[in-house]
Amino acid sequence: MPLYSYQCHSCGLRFEKRVGMAERASQPCVCGQTAQQAVPDDVGFSFNQPTRGIAPQNTGLSSVDASYDRVIAQDAALRWEAHNKREALKREVLRQNPNATKGDLSRTPDGSYRVLTPEQRKVNEAARVIDAVATLGKRKSPNPS
User: Whose CA is closest to 21, among 44, 4, 35?
Assistant: First the structure.
């Protein structure tokens, strides 16, 4: 039998009682008056679906969940494809310049890569140090605003 909440309008007492669906509209209160079924303050529920292996999350709208999962997977696949293309471009430039390392590479505006000159490399390293110090300082210092 379900558990229902009741509120007595005479004495104000709120209580719960297990009753059949046919008797749920009203119940006698301890004060002798009739208490009416109360509207619940909050409702809690969950969906329990046993899964085997990888399955989309279950919010009760599996078609929506599956669509979101599909979009996320497609986005991840496109990002990995772009990453792999960039890495292939870097490997090709490094193959052509055997004395260079990944730290010697710079991305050009057209999306390809080139090897920095020693002077450019020093400027690049100095800029990275300044950026790291500035970023670290922002993390440690409290926000003044």
Answer: 4
